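Q: Got a minute? One more chain.
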Amino acid sequence: MAELTDHEWYELVKAGEDAGWKLVWERVVEPESTAMRSAELMKRYSITAGDLMGMLYDEMIGRRKIDLYRDDGGSLQGWLRRYVRGFILNADPNKHGEISIDGVHPDAENGHMGLEVPVDDIKMTRNEVWNMTHLCFRDLWNNDPERALVLLLKTRFHLSSEEVRDFLDVSSVANVDQIFSRSVKFMRNAWGERDRKGF
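A: Always. Here it is, folded:
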């Protein structure tokens, strides 16, 4: 099975074939679950590698997220691994409601750009703001899981660009910052679009 190309592996995974999913376990789930940072979080949130495998299968096959993979020469292993890391981060029971929407100017010295969500209606309740933020984040996740994870790591877990680079295996700090900038832009646009449509 080691001779499979990424495309051949993708086709097996997409078809739900055991051979393809055995490689998912060996190349994606098991390595991520034993990585130091992920292993610590998994222990803290009481989730197992088997849990991650089940969630990944449900997401890819049950919800057909595998259809979002572009299969254009990219890394299927890296793409699936980002989903697994997302499952680990989302297992935090204290996470919900903590995606920051506090605005920080893009030129701030610490390099963090807040979500500066364009809330013009002061009467909007905190619950409505969270619901809107959640919907926009879901849009971002469905569009690009990597951008969603970068946004989550920087705004919820307050990781530096260097830490995000290492955690997600991004090529450089500059790329992390660029991905984060694009994720913020996507969230703002998604917010505006949903606001116009009334959620």
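A: The chain is about 65% helix and 0% strand.
Q: Perfect, thanks.
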